[in-house]
Protein backbone atom coordinates (compact mmCIF):
# COMPACT_ATOMS: atom_id res chain seq x y z
CA UNK A 1 0.00 0.00 0.00
CA UNK A 2 1.39 3.42 -0.89
CA UNK A 3 2.75 5.40 2.07
CA UNK A 4 2.53 9.08 1.31
CA UNK A 5 3.56 12.25 3.04
CA UNK A 6 0.59 14.47 3.52
CA UNK A 7 -0.17 17.11 0.99
CA UNK A 8 -3.32 19.19 1.21
CA UNK A 9 -4.71 17.76 -2.02
CA UNK A 10 -5.77 14.61 -0.18
CA UNK A 11 -9.03 13.46 -1.68
CA UNK A 12 -10.85 10.24 -2.34
CA UNK A 13 -13.44 11.89 -4.54
CA UNK A 14 -13.64 10.06 -7.84
CA UNK A 15 -15.28 11.61 -10.81
CA UNK A 16 -19.01 10.91 -10.96
CA UNK A 17 -19.77 8.32 -13.63
CA UNK A 18 -22.10 9.94 -16.14
CA UNK A 19 -21.93 6.93 -18.46
CA UNK A 20 -21.13 7.02 -22.15
CA UNK A 21 -23.32 8.72 -24.73
CA UNK A 22 -24.37 5.26 -25.89
CA UNK A 23 -25.38 4.16 -22.38
CA UNK A 24 -27.38 7.35 -21.85
CA UNK A 25 -29.17 6.79 -25.16
CA UNK A 26 -29.93 3.15 -24.24
CA UNK A 27 -31.41 4.23 -20.91
CA UNK A 28 -33.59 6.93 -22.51
CA UNK A 29 -34.82 4.40 -25.07
CA UNK A 30 -35.60 1.79 -22.42
CA UNK A 31 -37.54 4.27 -20.30
CA UNK A 32 -39.55 5.53 -23.27
CA UNK A 33 -40.38 1.98 -24.40
CA UNK A 34 -41.54 0.96 -20.92
CA UNK A 35 -43.75 4.06 -20.80
CA UNK A 36 -45.30 3.09 -24.10
CA UNK A 37 -45.46 -0.71 -23.94
CA UNK A 38 -45.68 -1.37 -20.18
CA UNK A 39 -45.47 -5.02 -19.07
CA UNK A 40 -44.62 -6.24 -22.57
CA UNK A 41 -41.47 -4.08 -22.55
CA UNK A 42 -40.45 -5.47 -19.14
CA UNK A 43 -40.81 -9.01 -20.44
CA UNK A 44 -38.84 -8.27 -23.62
CA UNK A 45 -36.00 -6.43 -21.87
CA UNK A 46 -35.69 -9.18 -19.26
CA UNK A 47 -35.28 -11.66 -22.10
CA UNK A 48 -32.79 -9.42 -23.91
CA UNK A 49 -30.57 -8.30 -20.99
CA UNK A 50 -30.98 -11.13 -18.48
CA UNK A 51 -31.60 -14.02 -20.86
CA UNK A 52 -34.72 -15.07 -18.96
CA UNK A 53 -38.15 -15.39 -20.48
CA UNK A 54 -40.92 -14.85 -17.97
CA UNK A 55 -44.66 -14.64 -18.50
CA UNK A 56 -45.13 -13.20 -15.08
CA UNK A 57 -42.44 -11.24 -13.30
CA UNK A 58 -44.27 -10.78 -9.99
CA UNK A 59 -42.75 -12.93 -7.23
CA UNK A 60 -45.47 -15.17 -5.79
CA UNK A 61 -46.15 -15.95 -2.15
CA UNK A 62 -45.14 -19.57 -2.91
CA UNK A 63 -41.74 -18.37 -4.21
CA UNK A 64 -41.19 -16.32 -1.04
CA UNK A 65 -42.08 -19.30 1.14
CA UNK A 66 -39.85 -21.61 -0.91
CA UNK A 67 -36.94 -19.15 -0.61
CA UNK A 68 -37.49 -18.82 3.13
CA UNK A 69 -37.25 -22.58 3.47
CA UNK A 70 -33.95 -22.62 1.57
CA UNK A 71 -32.15 -20.30 3.98
CA UNK A 72 -30.38 -21.85 6.93
CA UNK A 73 -32.34 -21.50 10.21
CA UNK A 74 -29.37 -19.95 12.00
CA UNK A 75 -28.93 -17.37 9.25
CA UNK A 76 -32.64 -16.50 9.44
CA UNK A 77 -32.24 -15.89 13.16
CA UNK A 78 -29.24 -13.63 12.53
CA UNK A 79 -31.17 -11.66 9.87
CA UNK A 80 -34.09 -11.29 12.30
CA UNK A 81 -31.83 -10.04 15.10
CA UNK A 82 -30.16 -7.56 12.74
CA UNK A 83 -33.63 -6.44 11.58
CA UNK A 84 -34.69 -5.83 15.19
CA UNK A 85 -31.56 -3.74 15.84
CA UNK A 86 -32.10 -1.72 12.65
CA UNK A 87 -35.75 -1.16 13.55
CA UNK A 88 -35.07 0.03 17.07
CA UNK A 89 -32.30 2.40 15.89
CA UNK A 90 -34.54 3.93 13.23
CA UNK A 91 -37.49 4.24 15.60
CA UNK A 92 -35.35 6.68 17.59
CA UNK A 93 -35.24 8.90 14.49
CA UNK A 94 -39.02 9.38 14.46
CA UNK A 95 -40.08 12.96 15.11
CA UNK A 96 -43.67 13.94 15.87
CA UNK A 97 -45.70 16.50 13.98
CA UNK A 98 -45.93 19.67 16.07
CA UNK A 99 -48.07 22.78 16.52
CA UNK A 100 -47.65 25.91 18.62
CA UNK A 101 -50.41 28.30 19.67
CA UNK A 102 -49.58 31.91 20.40
CA UNK A 103 -51.56 34.25 22.65
CA UNK A 104 -53.23 36.01 19.72
CA UNK A 105 -54.62 32.68 18.50
CA UNK A 106 -52.02 32.00 15.79
CA UNK A 107 -51.35 28.32 15.30
CA UNK A 108 -48.19 27.27 13.43
CA UNK A 109 -46.88 23.81 12.95
CA UNK A 110 -45.39 21.04 10.89
CA UNK A 111 -47.26 17.91 9.84
CA UNK A 112 -45.16 14.86 9.03
CA UNK A 113 -46.63 12.37 6.55
CA UNK A 114 -45.07 9.15 5.28
CA UNK A 115 -44.65 8.74 1.53
CA UNK A 116 -47.48 6.62 0.09
CA UNK A 117 -45.20 4.25 -1.80
CA UNK A 118 -41.49 3.60 -2.36
CA UNK A 119 -39.52 1.26 -4.62
CA UNK A 120 -36.24 -0.38 -3.67
CA UNK A 121 -33.87 -1.51 -6.41
CA UNK A 122 -31.78 -4.53 -5.36
CA UNK A 123 -28.88 -5.09 -7.78
CA UNK A 124 -28.28 -8.49 -9.29
CA UNK A 125 -25.28 -10.79 -9.04
CA UNK A 126 -22.99 -10.86 -6.03
CA UNK A 127 -24.10 -7.35 -5.03
CA UNK A 128 -27.64 -8.54 -4.14
CA UNK A 129 -27.04 -7.92 -0.44
CA UNK A 130 -29.80 -9.08 1.93
CA UNK A 131 -28.39 -6.58 4.45
CA UNK A 132 -29.19 -3.73 2.02
CA UNK A 133 -32.77 -4.99 1.76
CA UNK A 134 -33.08 -4.54 5.54
CA UNK A 135 -31.36 -1.14 5.45
CA UNK A 136 -33.81 0.24 2.87
CA UNK A 137 -37.08 -1.45 3.80
CA UNK A 138 -36.95 -1.04 7.58
CA UNK A 139 -36.62 2.78 7.71
CA UNK A 140 -39.46 3.01 5.17
CA UNK A 141 -41.62 0.78 7.37
CA UNK A 142 -40.73 2.74 10.49
CA UNK A 143 -41.60 5.97 8.65
CA UNK A 144 -45.07 4.54 8.00
CA UNK A 145 -44.82 3.91 4.22
CA UNK A 146 -47.74 1.62 3.31
CA UNK A 147 -46.56 0.25 -0.04
CA UNK A 148 -42.96 -0.94 -0.41
CA UNK A 149 -41.99 -2.50 -3.73
CA UNK A 150 -38.76 -4.36 -4.51
CA UNK A 151 -37.38 -4.95 -8.00
CA UNK A 152 -34.31 -6.98 -8.86
CA UNK A 153 -33.10 -8.79 -11.98
CA UNK A 154 -33.69 -12.56 -12.09
CA UNK A 155 -30.68 -14.81 -11.80
CA UNK A 156 -29.43 -15.65 -15.28
CA UNK A 157 -29.40 -19.40 -14.50
CA UNK A 158 -32.44 -20.00 -12.29
CA UNK A 159 -34.67 -17.12 -13.36
CA UNK A 160 -35.32 -16.50 -9.66
CA UNK A 161 -34.20 -14.01 -7.03
CA UNK A 162 -31.62 -15.11 -4.42
CA UNK A 163 -33.39 -16.90 -1.52
CA UNK A 164 -31.63 -14.74 1.11
CA UNK A 165 -32.86 -11.54 -0.59
CA UNK A 166 -36.45 -12.82 -0.56
CA UNK A 167 -36.08 -13.98 3.05
CA UNK A 168 -34.71 -10.57 4.11
CA UNK A 169 -37.57 -8.84 2.27
CA UNK A 170 -40.08 -11.07 4.06
CA UNK A 171 -38.47 -10.42 7.46
CA UNK A 172 -38.41 -6.68 6.81
CA UNK A 173 -42.05 -6.77 5.68
CA UNK A 174 -41.90 -6.13 1.91
CA UNK A 175 -44.06 -8.54 -0.08
CA UNK A 176 -44.56 -6.82 -3.46
CA UNK A 177 -41.53 -7.98 -5.41
CA UNK A 178 -40.77 -8.06 -9.14
CA UNK A 179 -38.11 -9.94 -11.08
CA UNK A 180 -37.13 -7.01 -13.25
CA UNK A 181 -33.76 -5.24 -13.34
CA UNK A 182 -31.92 -2.36 -14.97
CA UNK A 183 -33.37 0.83 -16.43
CA UNK A 184 -36.63 -0.97 -17.25
CA UNK A 185 -37.22 -1.64 -13.54
CA UNK A 186 -36.62 2.02 -12.69
CA UNK A 187 -38.99 3.10 -15.49
CA UNK A 188 -41.68 0.73 -14.23
CA UNK A 189 -41.32 2.06 -10.69
CA UNK A 190 -41.41 5.68 -11.85
CA UNK A 191 -44.19 5.55 -14.44
CA UNK A 192 -46.00 2.28 -13.78
CA UNK A 193 -47.15 -0.52 -16.09
CA UNK A 194 -50.29 -2.68 -16.15
CA UNK A 195 -48.82 -4.77 -13.30
CA UNK A 196 -46.55 -2.36 -11.44
CA UNK A 197 -48.27 0.70 -9.96
CA UNK A 198 -45.91 3.70 -9.87
CA UNK A 199 -44.14 4.71 -6.63
CA UNK A 200 -43.22 8.13 -5.23
CA UNK A 201 -39.55 7.48 -4.45
CA UNK A 202 -36.89 5.03 -5.63
CA UNK A 203 -33.94 3.96 -3.47
CA UNK A 204 -31.10 1.49 -3.81
CA UNK A 205 -27.87 1.11 -5.80
CA UNK A 206 -27.21 -0.56 -9.14
CA UNK A 207 -24.96 -0.54 -12.20
CA UNK A 208 -24.53 2.39 -14.59
CA UNK A 209 -27.85 1.69 -16.39
CA UNK A 210 -29.70 1.80 -13.08
CA UNK A 211 -27.88 4.95 -11.93
CA UNK A 212 -28.54 6.77 -15.21
CA UNK A 213 -32.20 5.72 -15.15
CA UNK A 214 -32.60 7.00 -11.59
CA UNK A 215 -31.14 10.34 -12.67
CA UNK A 216 -33.45 10.42 -15.68
CA UNK A 217 -36.68 9.85 -13.69
CA UNK A 218 -35.70 12.18 -10.83
CA UNK A 219 -38.21 15.00 -10.64
CA UNK A 220 -41.13 12.81 -11.67
CA UNK A 221 -40.30 10.76 -8.57
CA UNK A 222 -37.80 11.34 -5.80
CA UNK A 223 -34.62 9.24 -5.54
CA UNK A 224 -32.28 8.62 -2.61
CA UNK A 225 -28.80 9.28 -3.99
CA UNK A 226 -26.45 7.98 -6.65
CA UNK A 227 -24.18 5.92 -4.42
CA UNK A 228 -20.51 5.69 -5.37
CA UNK A 229 -18.12 2.84 -4.53
CA UNK A 230 -17.55 2.07 -0.85
CA UNK A 231 -15.00 4.10 1.17
CA UNK A 232 -13.21 3.64 4.46
CA UNK A 233 -10.84 6.03 6.21
CA UNK A 234 -9.09 4.98 9.40
CA UNK A 235 -7.68 7.53 11.81
CA UNK A 236 -5.17 5.73 14.01
CA UNK A 237 -2.33 6.33 16.43
CA UNK A 238 0.56 4.07 17.47
CA UNK A 239 -1.77 2.04 19.77
CA UNK A 240 -3.72 0.60 16.81
CA UNK A 241 -3.05 -3.03 15.91
CA UNK A 242 -1.71 -3.32 12.35
CA UNK A 243 -3.48 -6.62 11.58
CA UNK A 244 -6.83 -5.11 12.60
CA UNK A 245 -6.27 -1.90 10.62
CA UNK A 246 -5.32 -3.91 7.53
CA UNK A 247 -8.34 -6.22 7.91
CA UNK A 248 -10.66 -3.23 8.16
CA UNK A 249 -9.19 -1.54 5.07
CA UNK A 250 -9.61 -4.78 3.11
CA UNK A 251 -13.20 -5.19 4.31
CA UNK A 252 -14.18 -2.30 2.06
CA UNK A 253 -11.61 -2.97 -0.67
CA UNK A 254 -13.31 -6.29 -1.43
CA UNK A 255 -16.56 -4.51 -2.36
CA UNK A 256 -15.41 -2.89 -5.56
CA UNK A 257 -12.25 -2.30 -7.65
CA UNK A 258 -12.97 1.41 -7.15
CA UNK A 259 -13.55 1.22 -3.39
CA UNK A 260 -11.36 3.67 -1.51
CA UNK A 261 -9.28 2.68 1.52
CA UNK A 262 -7.22 5.23 3.40
CA UNK A 263 -5.24 5.15 6.64
CA UNK A 264 -4.33 8.51 8.18
CA UNK A 265 -1.86 8.38 11.06
CA UNK A 266 0.95 10.38 12.63
CA UNK A 267 2.76 7.09 13.32
CA UNK A 268 5.29 6.10 10.63
CA UNK A 269 5.81 2.80 12.46
CA UNK A 270 2.11 1.93 12.20
CA UNK A 271 2.10 2.98 8.54
CA UNK A 272 4.91 0.55 7.69
CA UNK A 273 3.34 -2.31 9.64
CA UNK A 274 -0.12 -1.81 8.09
CA UNK A 275 1.33 -1.66 4.60
CA UNK A 276 3.01 -5.04 5.11
CA UNK A 277 -0.11 -6.54 6.72
CA UNK A 278 -2.36 -5.43 3.84
CA UNK A 279 -0.09 -7.22 1.42
CA UNK A 280 -0.06 -10.38 3.55
CA UNK A 281 -3.82 -10.51 4.17
CA UNK A 282 -4.74 -9.54 0.61
CA UNK A 283 -3.18 -12.72 -0.74
CA UNK A 284 -5.52 -14.80 1.46
CA UNK A 285 -8.80 -13.24 0.35
CA UNK A 286 -11.21 -14.98 -2.04
CA UNK A 287 -12.03 -11.60 -3.65
CA UNK A 288 -8.34 -10.62 -3.81
CA UNK A 289 -8.49 -9.45 -7.42
CA UNK A 290 -11.15 -6.88 -6.67
CA UNK A 291 -9.49 -5.83 -3.41
CA UNK A 292 -6.04 -5.58 -5.04
CA UNK A 293 -7.32 -3.13 -7.67
CA UNK A 294 -8.99 -1.02 -5.00
CA UNK A 295 -5.82 -0.93 -2.86
CA UNK A 296 -3.60 -0.21 -5.87
CA UNK A 297 -5.70 2.59 -7.38
CA UNK A 298 -7.65 4.06 -4.48
CA UNK A 299 -5.67 3.00 -1.41
CA UNK A 300 -3.21 5.19 0.50
CA UNK A 301 -1.57 5.63 3.86
CA UNK A 302 -0.96 9.25 4.82
CA UNK A 303 1.62 9.96 7.50
CA UNK A 304 0.94 13.30 9.13
CA UNK A 305 3.04 15.56 11.39
CA UNK A 306 0.49 15.41 14.21
CA UNK A 307 -2.88 14.02 15.27
CA UNK A 308 -4.46 17.46 14.65
CA UNK A 309 -3.24 17.34 11.07
CA UNK A 310 -4.57 13.78 10.74
CA UNK A 311 -8.00 14.89 11.96
CA UNK A 312 -8.04 17.79 9.50
CA UNK A 313 -7.13 15.36 6.71
CA UNK A 314 -10.03 13.09 7.62
CA UNK A 315 -12.41 16.06 7.63
CA UNK A 316 -11.19 17.01 4.15
CA UNK A 317 -11.82 13.47 2.94
CA UNK A 318 -15.37 13.40 4.39
CA UNK A 319 -15.36 9.58 4.06
CA UNK A 320 -18.37 7.30 3.92
CA UNK A 321 -17.02 5.29 6.87
CA UNK A 322 -14.51 6.54 9.43
CA UNK A 323 -12.91 4.29 12.04
CA UNK A 324 -11.08 5.94 14.92
CA UNK A 325 -8.48 3.56 16.30
CA UNK A 326 -6.67 5.68 18.84
CA UNK A 327 -6.01 5.33 22.55
CA UNK A 328 -9.10 7.35 23.39
CA UNK A 329 -11.40 7.58 20.34
CA UNK A 330 -14.28 9.24 22.17
CA UNK A 331 -12.02 12.26 22.92
CA UNK A 332 -11.62 12.91 19.18
CA UNK A 333 -15.28 12.56 18.23
CA UNK A 334 -16.04 16.25 18.78
CA UNK A 335 -13.40 17.23 16.22
CA UNK A 336 -14.84 15.07 13.41
CA UNK A 337 -17.05 17.22 11.22
CA UNK A 338 -17.53 15.15 8.09
CA UNK A 339 -18.09 11.37 7.88
CA UNK A 340 -21.10 9.21 6.97
CA UNK A 341 -20.66 6.87 9.93
CA UNK A 342 -18.06 7.02 12.70
CA UNK A 343 -16.85 3.78 14.28
CA UNK A 344 -15.15 4.24 17.65
CA UNK A 345 -12.49 1.87 18.94
CA UNK A 346 -11.14 -1.51 18.00
CA UNK A 347 -14.29 -3.44 18.92
CA UNK A 348 -16.42 -1.49 16.41
CA UNK A 349 -14.96 -2.48 13.03
CA UNK A 350 -16.97 -1.31 10.03
CA UNK A 351 -18.82 -4.61 9.32
CA UNK A 352 -20.54 -4.17 12.71
CA UNK A 353 -22.41 -1.33 11.01
CA UNK A 354 -22.79 -3.04 7.63
CA UNK A 355 -24.84 -5.83 9.13
CA UNK A 356 -25.92 -5.61 12.67
CA UNK A 357 -25.64 -2.68 15.06
CA UNK A 358 -28.66 -0.75 13.78
CA UNK A 359 -27.47 2.47 12.05
CA UNK A 360 -28.03 2.52 8.30
CA UNK A 361 -25.27 1.29 5.97
CA UNK A 362 -26.52 3.42 3.06
CA UNK A 363 -24.19 6.37 3.52
CA UNK A 364 -22.99 9.42 1.59
CA UNK A 365 -19.95 8.73 -0.63
CA UNK A 366 -17.58 10.81 -2.79
CA UNK A 367 -17.08 13.50 -0.15
CA UNK A 368 -20.83 14.22 0.05
CA UNK A 369 -20.75 13.58 3.82
CA UNK A 370 -19.88 17.31 3.86
CA UNK A 371 -23.55 18.00 3.27
CA UNK A 372 -25.59 14.80 3.37
CA UNK A 373 -26.59 12.12 5.84
CA UNK A 374 -27.10 8.38 6.11
CA UNK A 375 -30.37 6.99 4.72
CA UNK A 376 -32.89 7.58 7.49
CA UNK A 377 -36.55 7.65 8.42
CA UNK A 378 -37.00 11.24 7.18
CA UNK A 379 -36.02 10.10 3.68
CA UNK A 380 -39.35 8.28 3.63
CA UNK A 381 -41.44 11.12 4.99
CA UNK A 382 -42.31 14.62 3.96
CA UNK A 383 -43.41 17.68 5.85
CA UNK A 384 -46.32 20.05 5.40
CA UNK A 385 -46.41 23.41 7.15
CA UNK A 386 -49.54 24.34 9.09
CA UNK A 387 -50.73 27.98 9.41
CA UNK A 388 -53.78 29.29 11.21
CA UNK A 389 -54.09 33.04 11.83
CA UNK A 390 -56.84 34.26 14.08
CA UNK A 391 -58.82 37.37 13.11
CA UNK A 392 -56.85 39.28 15.73
CA UNK A 393 -53.52 38.11 14.30
CA UNK A 394 -54.49 39.04 10.72
CA UNK A 395 -55.82 42.44 11.73
CA UNK A 396 -52.66 43.35 13.62
CA UNK A 397 -50.26 42.15 10.89
CA UNK A 398 -52.30 42.57 7.71
CA UNK A 399 -50.98 46.01 6.72
CA UNK A 400 -47.37 44.84 7.02
CA UNK A 401 -48.10 41.83 4.83
CA UNK A 402 -49.88 43.95 2.20
CA UNK A 403 -46.95 46.38 2.17
CA UNK A 404 -44.52 43.52 1.65
CA UNK A 405 -46.65 42.25 -1.25
CA UNK A 406 -46.66 45.69 -2.92
CA UNK A 407 -42.87 45.85 -2.54
CA UNK A 408 -42.85 42.82 -4.85
CA UNK A 409 -45.41 44.40 -7.19
CA UNK A 410 -48.02 41.79 -6.31
CA UNK A 411 -51.23 43.79 -5.91
CA UNK A 412 -53.56 40.77 -5.79
CA UNK A 413 -51.61 39.41 -2.84
CA UNK A 414 -52.08 42.70 -0.99
CA UNK A 415 -55.82 42.78 -1.76
CA UNK A 416 -56.28 39.17 -0.58
CA UNK A 417 -55.16 40.45 2.83
CA UNK A 418 -56.92 43.82 2.76
CA UNK A 419 -60.31 42.46 1.78
CA UNK A 420 -60.38 40.81 5.21
CA UNK A 421 -59.13 43.86 7.11
CA UNK A 422 -62.15 45.90 6.03
CA UNK A 423 -64.74 43.46 7.42
N1 LIG B 1 -22.87 1.65 -3.95
C1 LIG B 1 -23.36 0.61 -3.34
O1 LIG B 1 -23.68 0.69 -2.17
C2 LIG B 1 -23.58 -0.65 -4.10
C3 LIG B 1 -24.04 -1.78 -3.43
C4 LIG B 1 -24.29 -2.92 -4.15
C5 LIG B 1 -24.10 -2.92 -5.54
N2 LIG B 1 -23.64 -1.80 -6.16
C6 LIG B 1 -23.45 -1.80 -7.63
O2 LIG B 1 -24.48 -2.54 -8.22
C7 LIG B 1 -24.00 -3.01 -9.46
C8 LIG B 1 -24.46 -4.41 -9.67
O3 LIG B 1 -24.35 -4.60 -11.04
P1 LIG B 1 -25.08 -5.75 -11.85
O4 LIG B 1 -24.90 -5.41 -13.28
O5 LIG B 1 -24.60 -7.05 -11.35
O6 LIG B 1 -26.60 -5.68 -11.43
P2 LIG B 1 -27.71 -4.55 -11.68
O7 LIG B 1 -28.94 -5.11 -11.08
O8 LIG B 1 -27.27 -3.23 -11.20
O9 LIG B 1 -27.88 -4.49 -13.26
C9 LIG B 1 -28.36 -5.57 -14.00
C10 LIG B 1 -29.25 -5.01 -15.10
O10 LIG B 1 -28.52 -4.13 -15.91
C11 LIG B 1 -29.10 -4.08 -17.18
N3 LIG B 1 -28.10 -4.17 -18.21
C12 LIG B 1 -26.97 -4.92 -18.23
N4 LIG B 1 -26.32 -4.73 -19.40
C13 LIG B 1 -27.05 -3.87 -20.12
C14 LIG B 1 -26.90 -3.28 -21.41
N5 LIG B 1 -25.86 -3.55 -22.18
N6 LIG B 1 -27.84 -2.44 -21.83
C15 LIG B 1 -28.90 -2.12 -21.06
N7 LIG B 1 -29.10 -2.66 -19.84
C16 LIG B 1 -28.18 -3.50 -19.38
C17 LIG B 1 -30.02 -5.24 -17.29
O11 LIG B 1 -31.32 -4.80 -17.32
C18 LIG B 1 -29.80 -6.06 -16.02
O12 LIG B 1 -31.00 -6.57 -15.53
C19 LIG B 1 -22.49 -2.85 -9.46
O13 LIG B 1 -22.19 -1.80 -10.35
C20 LIG B 1 -22.17 -2.47 -8.04
O14 LIG B 1 -21.08 -1.59 -7.93
C21 LIG B 1 -23.39 -0.69 -5.47
N1 LIG C 1 -20.24 -1.44 3.14
C1 LIG C 1 -21.36 -1.33 2.21
C2 LIG C 1 -21.78 0.14 2.09
O1 LIG C 1 -20.77 0.95 1.85
C3 LIG C 1 -22.58 -2.07 2.63
C4 LIG C 1 -22.47 -3.55 2.73
C5 LIG C 1 -23.40 -4.48 2.40
N2 LIG C 1 -22.90 -5.67 2.69
C6 LIG C 1 -21.71 -5.51 3.18
N3 LIG C 1 -21.42 -4.21 3.20
ZN1 LIG D 1 -19.44 -3.48 3.42
Question: Please, could you describe this protein's structure?
Answer:
Keywords: Amino-acid biosynthesis, Histidine biosynthesis, Metal-binding, NAD, Oxidoreductase, Zinc. One of its GO terms (cellular component) is cytosol. Its cofactor is Zn(2+). Substrate binds at residues 230, 252, 255, 321, 354, 408, 413. Zn(2+) binds at residues 252, 255, 354, 413. The model has no long low-confidence stretch (mean pLDDT 95). Strand 12 (321-325), helix 13 and strand 13 (341-344) form a beta-alpha-beta unit. The strands form three sheets. The chain has a six-stranded parallel beta sheet with strand order 1-11-10-9-12-13, sandwiched between helices. A five-stranded parallel beta sheet has the order 6-5-4-7-8, sandwiched between helices. Strands 2-3-14 form a three-stranded antiparallel beta sheet, with no helix packed on it. The chain has helices spanning 21-37, 39-50, 61-70, 73-91, 130-143, 163-172, 182-191, 208-217, 242-253, 268-282, 288-298, 307-317, 329-333, 351-355, 391-407, 411-421, and strands at 3-5, 98-101, 107-114, 117-121, 147-151, 176-178, 201-203, 222-223, 231-236, 260-265, 299-303, 321-325, 341-344, 381-388. 45% of the residues lie in helices and 16% in strands. The chain folds into three domains: 3-12 and 228-357, Rossmann fold (3-Layer(aba) Sandwich), CATH 3.40.50; 21-95 and 115-223, Rossmann fold, CATH 3.40.50.1980; 389-421, no CATH class. By secondary structure, it is α/β, with parallel strands linked by helices. The longest helix is centred in the first third of the chain and has 19 residues, at 73-91. The structure holds nicotinamide-adenine-dinucleotide, L-histidinol (HSO) and zinc ion. L-histidinol is lined by residues 129, 131-132, 230, 320, 354, 361. Zinc ion is lined by residues 230, 255, 354.
